Structure formats: C-alpha cells, structure tokens
C-alpha cells in the first residue's frame, strides 16, 4: 500500500468517525428529549455505537487493501 | 378525555420527530459505508457556511442589527507527516550511531582522565 493510499484511508477513517459519532450523538439527543426524560445514557449509547461502527469500518478498510472503492454511475437513457 | 387526547398528541408529535430523525439518517446514509460518510461531510462543509451567512444576513435585515465582521482565522501550516517522518529518521540515525559515539566519547574521556592524573 503506497503512502498516498494510506493517507487517503486515514482521511476517510477520520471523516467517517466524525460523521458517525456526531450522528449517534444527535440521535441520542433526539431520543433523550422525546422518550427518555432527558437522561444522559442515550447520548452515551449513541456516541458509543457511532464510534464502534467507525472503528469497524476502518478496521475493514485497512485489512482489505485490495478492494477498490468505486461508485455507481446511472446509465443515461438515450 | 381531553388529557388523553393531549397525551396521545404529545406521543404522536414526539414519535414523528424521532422517526423523522431516524429517516433522515437512513436517507443520507450517514451510518453506512465510509465513502458515503465522507461525501456527506464534504457536502455539509460546502453547504453550511453559505447557509449560515445567509441566515445571519436575513437576521440583520429583519432586526436592523449590524453583526461586526470577524477577522479571518490565521492559517497555520504545520506538516505533521513531514515532521513526524523527520523525527523518526533522526531517532533511528541517533540509535544507529549511539554505540560508536559512546565508544568514542568514553575513549576521549579516558584519555582526558589519564592526561590529568599524570
């Protein structure tokens, strides 16, 4: 794995971690305010779940160096 | 009767807010693969600052307040990768020459002590 590819993977991992932890935290806030009487545990639970998902994605990304990241391109109807 | 209807309404409102948040997360694929999360973060970085600026302009127009222009944040350039790599190379070269340098300095020290005791 070249250094630039490694750098890109680290960037992707960090961005993924930020998004997932933030999303988990946000969902925790919503559920804490709506159903769980402003308790703290939904926030911790959501953030922890986001962190775990990000760690799992990063681990898979670093352990599978031969997978290519592509994107779907829709066929244009003529 | 009214209390029951009101508690049912409250539950429906809370349920719709929570369900809307869950649907938004599912639709934007925020908890999906890392590519989608990275794309969502990039899109947020492009969309949020102009939206905040437009909102502040709208608030200024409606209230007549003038928000002072903040100075631009200083651009700090610190290449972590280069300094880390340089640090690693320095440590490894120091470790590789450490035995010969130690031998040289101890020999010099011994010669010095010998010369002083004569």
UniProtKB/TrEMBL annotation, chain B:
Q: Which residues form the signal peptide?
A: 1-18
Q: State the InterPro entries in the record.
A: Mic13
Any single GO BP term: cristae formation
Q: What is its main location?
A: mitochondrion
The lineage's top-level taxon is Eukaryota
Gene Ontology CC annotations of this record: MICOS complex; mitochondrial crista junction
Cellular localisation? Mitochondrion inner membrane
What keywords does the record list, in alphabetical order?
Membrane, Mitochondrion, Mitochondrion inner membrane, Signal, Transmembrane, Transmembrane helix
Q: Topology relative to the membrane, per the entry?
A: Single-pass membrane protein
Repeat listed as a keyword: no
Q: Kindly state the subunit structure of this protein.
A: Component of the mitochondrial contact site and cristae organizing system (MICOS) complex.
Recorded hits in PANTHER family, A to Z, give: MICOS COMPLEX SUBUNIT MIC13
User: What family classification does the UniProt entry report for this protein?
Assistant: Belongs to the MICOS complex subunit Mic13 family.
Q: What does this protein do?
A: Component of the MICOS complex, a large protein complex of the mitochondrial inner membrane that plays crucial roles in the maintenance of crista junctions, inner membrane architecture, and formation of contact sites to the outer membrane.
The name this protein goes by in its record:
MICOS complex subunit MIC13
């Amino acid at each position: 794995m070249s250094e630039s590819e490694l750098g890109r993977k680290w960037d992707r991992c960090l961005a993924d971690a930020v998004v997932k932890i933030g999303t988990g935290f946000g969902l925790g806030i919503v559920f804490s305010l709506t159903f769980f009487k402003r308790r703290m545990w939904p926030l911790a639970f959501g953030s922890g779940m986001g962190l775990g998902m990000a760690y799992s994605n990063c681990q898979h990304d670093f352990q599978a160096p031969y997978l290519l990241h592509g994107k779907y391109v829709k066929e244009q109807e003529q | 009767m009214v209390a029951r209807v009101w508690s049912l309404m409250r539950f429906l409102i809370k349920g719709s807010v929570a369900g809307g948040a869950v649907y938004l997360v599912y639709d934007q694929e925020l908890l999906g693969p890392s590519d989608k999360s990275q794309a969502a973060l990039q899109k947020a970085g492009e969309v949020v600052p102009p939206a905040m600026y437009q909102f502040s302009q709208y608030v200024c127009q409606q209230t007549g307040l003038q928000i002072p222009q903040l100075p631009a944040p200083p651009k700090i350039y610190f290449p972590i990768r280069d300094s880390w790599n340089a640090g690693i190379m320095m440590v490894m070269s120091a470790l590789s020459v450490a035995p010969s340098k130690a031998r040289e300095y101890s020999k010099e020290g011994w010669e010095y002590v010998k010369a002083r005791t004569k």
